[in-house]
Amino acid sequence: MEFAGIAHSTKRHVFTVLIVSLTLASSALAWDGHRKGFILGAGFGPGSTFYSMKDEAGYEDEVMESHDRGDYHGYGVYSNLKIGYAPTDQIKIYLESENTYFRGEVEIGHTGVSGIGVGYYLKPESPSWYMSAGIGYSTWNPPLFPPFEVLFEEYNYLGFGLRGAVGYEFARHFGVEFNFMWGNPTRDKPWTPAHDGYDYDLTIINAMSVGLTINALGY
């Protein structure tokens, strides 16, 4: 019951974020219609996540133990949020948060990249193709493997992250995007200290996600 409750809570959180994000983005559509200036946007759509897990232990200058835990794949939803400023009608600079929630081997997992991004439109007005890229930190919450589901709230990984997108603004404020993000978050194992006197005992994640989203951008 506790396991099902956590999954239900996660799904409810995703739904709430989606509604609030789209409401904020929609409320922004009453601005002057030029991309230059303050921007606020959100997107949502299907996504897919590929990830591998590896345990590693050793000293600062030498790896002593390494164990691959396998490669995995999960389908789910992909979302993004952006807030920033466009210095011209073709360039935008923003803070962003890209997230995907996916069904793993047992239940719901999460990975994301948050940081700063830059986008470029080929034309100053819609319709127009555009591209964007960002850099920041990646996060990871693993699928809930019993008996560790009780650690869900604390079981967070952090690391380096990258993301990119190619999109088409088919009408003013609205576009479709193909999104990509990659992260390499790590975490000390929360249930065991570094053993045998090693300096570290880590679980390392290598996660790549792709998504196709419908985006609303207020400007």
Strand-helix topology:
Blueprint: H1 2-27, E1 37-59, E2 62-86, E3 91-103, E4 108-121, E5 128-141, E6 157-171, E7 174-183, E8 186-188, E9 200-218
Antiparallel strand pairs: 1-2, 1-9, 2-3, 3-4, 4-5, 5-6, 6-7, 7-9, 8-9
Features:
1 helix; disordered N terminus; 219 residues; 8-stranded antiparallel barrel; Porin; mainly beta
Q: What does this molecule look like?
A:
By secondary structure, this protein is mainly β. It has one domain: Porin (Beta Barrel). 12% of the residues lie in helices and 62% in strands. The protein is built from 1 helix and 9 strands. It has one helix at residues 2-27; strands at 37-59, 62-86, 91-103, 108-121, 128-141, 157-171, 174-183, 186-188, 200-218. It has an 8-stranded antiparallel beta barrel with strand order 1-2-3-4-5-6-7-9. The longest helix has 26 residues, at 2-27. The model is unreliable at 1-11 and 145-153 (pLDDT under 50).
Shape: elongated
Helix content: 10-25%
According to CATH, the fold-level topology is: Porin
Low-confidence stretches: 1-11, 145-153
Percent of residues in β-strands: over 45%
Based on secondary structure, the structural category is mainly beta
Please report the number of helical segments: 1
Mean pLDDT: 78
Within the largest sheet, what's the order of strands?
A: 1-2-3-4-5-6-7-9
User: Helices and strands, in N-to-C order?
Assistant: HEEEEEEEEE
